[in-house]
Structures are given as C-alpha cells and as structure tokens.
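Re: weekly structure request thread

Next one in the queue (113 aa):
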Amino acid sequence: MYSKAIIVTAVAALTSTVAAVTGDMTWFHPGLGACGGTDNDGSPVVALNPSDYANGANCGRWITIQGNGRQTAARVVDLCPGCGSGGIDVAPAIFDDIASLDDGRVQVNWFFQ
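Done, posted below.
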C-alpha cells in the first residue's frame, strides 16, 4: 500500500501544470515600491509588468525565475510600467543569480509559486 501512495503522489506531481510566463528580465535599484515597502539592491524582489502586477493584487507573492540554466525566487514589491508583456524588473542580487549585470536584459521564464 505504501508504494501505491508514492506512485500516486509522483503521478500527481508530474501532471500538475504551472503557468509559466516568458519575458525579458531587466534590473533596477529598488527603493520605495508600489506595494508600500522599501527594499535595496540585495533584496530578493521583483517589479512586474502592468498586466501581471494586476493593480497590486499580486503584491507580496513570490515568483520563481528560470534562465540560463539557473533558477531563483523573488517577492513582488513593485510595478514596472515600462516592462512589456511578461517582462519583469528585478533587484541586482536577483539578476546576478541568472546572468551578469553587464547583460542588462535576458529572456527568462517565470511563474507564481
């Protein structure tokens, strides 16, 4: 019976879907964000494009970001009005987890946790 439970759990994990978004990731120097908090360059934070920011409905949520064979996580704290569809703007500490700051802009996949 125990092995059957493991198999069911494994199948459920494999069949669950996560709605990943593809877009450009850029970086910025955080300060007072649209969600009301203050952060800095070392904070694990992200600003979302207007559509995904959803008038602040996603403030405080965490996203997983994947790119260049790497993965990191960031908390939604701000709006990025200049970001295109799927685009995100992250603190330097988060950008550096995926690519060199010198790159400035990279394409990533991301999803809400």
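Residues 1-15 have pLDDT under 50 and may be disordered. Residues 2-15 form the longest helix (14 residues).
Next request, please.
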